[in-house]
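Q: For a teaching session next week I want to show students how multiple molecules come together into a single three-dimensional assembly. I've collected the sequence lines for a complex. Could you give me the predicted structure tokens for the whole thing so I can convert them for display?
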Amino acid sequence: MHEMSIAESIVGIVQETARAGGLAKVSAVRLEIGALAAVETRALRFCFDSVTRGTLAEGAALEIDTPPGEAWCFACNASVTVAARTDPCPACAGSRLQVTGGSDMRVKDIRGH
Amino acid sequence: MCTTCGCGPEHSHAHDTEPERALAVERDILGRNDAEAARNRRRFAARGIFALNLVSSPGSGKTTLLVETIRRLGAALPIAVIEGDQQTSNDADRIRATGAAAIQINTGKGCHLDAHMVGHAFDHLDPPAGSVLMVENVGNLVCPAAFDLGEAHKVVVLSVTEGEDKPLKYPDMFTASDLMVLNKCDLLPHLDFDPGLCEANARRINPGIAVMRVSSKTGEGMDAWLRWLQDGARATAGALAQAAE
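A: Of course. Below is the structure for the complete assembly, covering every listed component.
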């Protein structure tokens, strides 16, 4: 599953940040995974637990913020919120939408000591 | 409440453990792959190489399409191929049998190629300047969508033996692709597949996507596909020449 390689990327970023910031143990990692991002959250949690074993982030809590999807509706000439890429415009039910946000995946911060 | 001694927040005393600290990160998770992809993109541009990322579900006919493309273009346009599969070198062997250079990446358990793998393969392949570089990704309509390899375009190959609603079922991949090649069109008389509906679905997901109907077997539509490749290669070489001035 590619959630595994995404989890590996997250743990890589966490380890680099912890080392640079002098943390010996990471207790929590906060992610921002947009509603339209190409990742399945449950699978990601499973992979995160697996990949952190034996690292300074073993047992760390994984907190995930999920900002909503944003799209520009060409019919309404306005920015709208969508839950999925294929959703119609919530205002006019049209399908002439261009996704403008909510597909990013970021590590926001880590906590530890 | 402090979990070490049970005291409340009104107390503050040091424990054996250091206080917890938060470190801001604000890093894109795919940042490393994006950086490697950008590096690939720069290297391709520096050699005037037109790089394409061919994606599809397994069995859409990508490799046969590549074999036929190489056979028809001949010496007119050099093509080098990076093949991606979990196991075997079958696809790279088939490409090499046409006389074109090919290198096989085996991902093992992996479900997609990433920019690092492609960068390495490019080092080994070392195609001549002005070539077309075809990266045939692992057959998978889900995961490769998220991984930029440094290509100029993702080309999604869809066989008419699949459903017309594939673009709706796998929107990330069809949004990420600039061209959809509808393959195996010679089989249409034997199927209930509606190519117009499929194209409409693709445009619903990605209004800007270009569509071509081809058959590697009969040659239908191949001229337009070859022209598209030649135009892209010419534009890439032209950009390099301009940069050199």
